[in-house]
Amino acid sequence: MFFSNPNRLGLIAAIYACAAAQAQTSSPSDIFITANRWGEAREAVRADANVLTREDIQRSGANSLPELLSLLPGIQSTSYGGSNLYVRGAESRMTPLYIDGVRIESHDSMSIGGAPWELLPLDIIERVEVIKGPMSALYGSDAMSGAVQVMTKSGNRAARQQMTVGLGTQGSHQASAALNGGNETVTYSLKVGEKHSDGYNTRPDLVHTPSREAWTDKFATASLLWRILPDQQLELTTMGANRDQQMAPYSDGIDNRKQSKLRAASLKWQSQWSDKHFSKIQVTQGRNASKSDAPNPGDSPNDYFTKTETVTAQHQMVLPLGQLTGLVEHKSDKFEAMATLYDPQVHGQRSQNAVGLGYELRQGAHNFRINVRDDKYEAFGIQNTYSAGYAWDFSQDLSLMASQSTGFRAPTLEQVFGPYGAISLKPETVTSREVALEQRADRFRWRVTVYDSHVTNLISSSQTLSTCAAGAFCYFNVGKANMQGVSLSAGTQWFGAQLDASYDYLDARDEIRNKQLSLRAQHQARFSISKTLESVRVGAQLLAVGSRFDDAANTKELPGYAVLNLSLQKQLSSQWSWLLRINNVTDKSYQQMGCTPGQCHFAAPGRSAFTSLTWTNKD
Questions:
Q1: CA dihedral 317, 318, 319, 321 (to 10 degrees)
Q2: How confident is the model at residue 81 (pLDDT cuts 50, 70, 90)?
Q3: Which of 227, 51, 232 is nearest to 151 (CA)?
Q4: pLDDT of res. 42
Q5: Could you give the 3-state DSSP secondary structure of residue 297?
Q6: d(Cα 445, Cα 467) in Å, to the nearest integer?
Q7: What is the pTM of this model?
């Protein structure tokens, strides 16, 4: 790392000279990593956070990561017509995605930055961690509304071999195989698979060939853990996912073909020097590429490539009073876009250095946390962020929490180096406050969170702005937005059944136009129930989404909808298990988004079913 300010170098040296960390005694399934980038017991996390396990994913009926995450409180999404994730009403680009600690980004004009959520197959995921609220004091750019961490490593080390085959409606079929093994010194995990669907007619409002949009996913993951010494270990993880899909054209004609590739690789070393000293260094690389053809007159092929590399070093120490964490990070981004009929080739790159500190104090019923971070960019200098929170356990299982935090998002490389970009663009910023009341009893839990987030310097675009070249498109900072909301969630066990429910109220508003932000419903509710009946685990999930506007001017309103999914799971023998999912049981016809409001229609898939058999061999 290189920092121009000698005070920062002295601070880093001081941290690494005396830093130390607590030993983690909880099992991996009980550790929540995303809240502090280090790992702590799930019950100790006071932020608004959620965990989804492999079993949750199988029962959900979700077809994509945004669709899966929309089943959590405080999150909305669109999966048909475009993949978008709105955490507490913020844009998709304001929530970073990490795969096994690897940052995944896009810098192209199609995604306007942010993660390619739709490219990550659900079959590859073993666990998802979500934390809501600005997290830039830990993660830097983009973490304006939260952070999502996906783990691909198998959590079932006892399952030496595993194979799954499945069939479903719309010509869907899948096959996957996994292998785990090792000893006390070295353990490994491998998984490969493929999933295909003939698809359905995503644009019934036009004539196009073929009439259904098929897709194929191929994926592979691998991990290797080497315990060099009892207190030191080295871990390598890597994953790859390819998607080949047909996409309906904007108007009548031939479907476009889009090919996408996602890669993530990480090498992590960590050491426990004593019962108070713990270090971790991680080197990662994330790659995201997409290519589409142009079969119709007026179409333009696209070819984008984004690479993100990071080196992160962390250290913790336990003080006589509290715990201190230090972090230094170097991040570099590279973006390329091929020349098109309309635009020249784009090539851009930049680097960013960061230093951060965190402090936590637990004293009886009181818990105080603070994080601060400096990010230095080549283009616009230093961006400072912070997060401060306080929790009071005023009874054995009842807690009151309050926090304030800030976040930012750097302009994408396309917005800076592209033909319509500007090096003068400033980062988008947010300041957020929240208050929560939570009860965690043995058989009943609930949480109420109230939040208020103000976003400034939103990056917008125009073809008519006086500062743009005549008749040209350009980017500029102008927008302001306010997201206020209340999120309620509860879960309990009742006569052997697990019940979970949530309700969200969201007022996401463009403060310049005084209009509701598009595609965000003010009301969204969820309910799920699961119970074992005659050795069969039966589950039902209901998602109800209120009306929302399809455009920024609030002239086109999309009606609300409710979707019911069912699942059945049964352990047939010690080695065989069976799963059946029926999505959209009532065959509800609904629309999540449109394009050119009132002139086109993206359809949802309707009722579908999928069943699979899994064979597991355990030692």
A1: 140
A2: confident
A3: 51
A4: 80
A5: coil
A6: 54
A7: 0.92
Distance CA(286)–CA(609), nearest Å, equals: 34
Q: Which residue has the higher pLDDT, 432 or 465?
A: 432
Helix and strand element counts for the chain (H, E): 5, 36
CA distance 474 to 416: 10
Contacts of 297 (CB under 8 A, 6+ apart): none
Q: What is the mean pLDDT of the chain?
A: 89
Nearest CA to 250 among 217, 188, 207?
Answer: 207
Give Cβ neighbours of residue 505 (< 8 Å, ≥ 6 apart).
485, 486, 522, 523
Neighbours of 119 (CB within 10 A): 23
Cα 560 to Cα 554: distance, rounded to the nearest angstrom: 15
Q: Could you read off the pLDDT of 261-284 as tens digits, one per residue?
A: 999 999 999 998 888 889 999 999
Q: How many CB atoms lie within 10 A of CB 17?
A: 8
Residue 584, beta-bridge partner list: none
Q: Rounded CA gap, 46 and 131, in Å?
A: 10
Residue 218 sits at φ, ψ, to 5 deg, of: -125, 135
Q: What is the distance between the alpha carbons of residues 373 and 371, in angstroms, rounded to a whole number?
A: 7
Q: Which two tokens stand for residue 522?
A: 């003010």
Residue 498 near residue 530, CB atoms below 8 Å: yes
* 400 residue type, one letter: L
Q: What is the DSSP string of 148-217?
A: EEEE-S-S-TTEEEEEEEEEETTTEEEEEEEEEEE-SSEEEEEEEEEEEE----S-TTS-EESSS--EEE
Structure tokens at 36: 């502090």
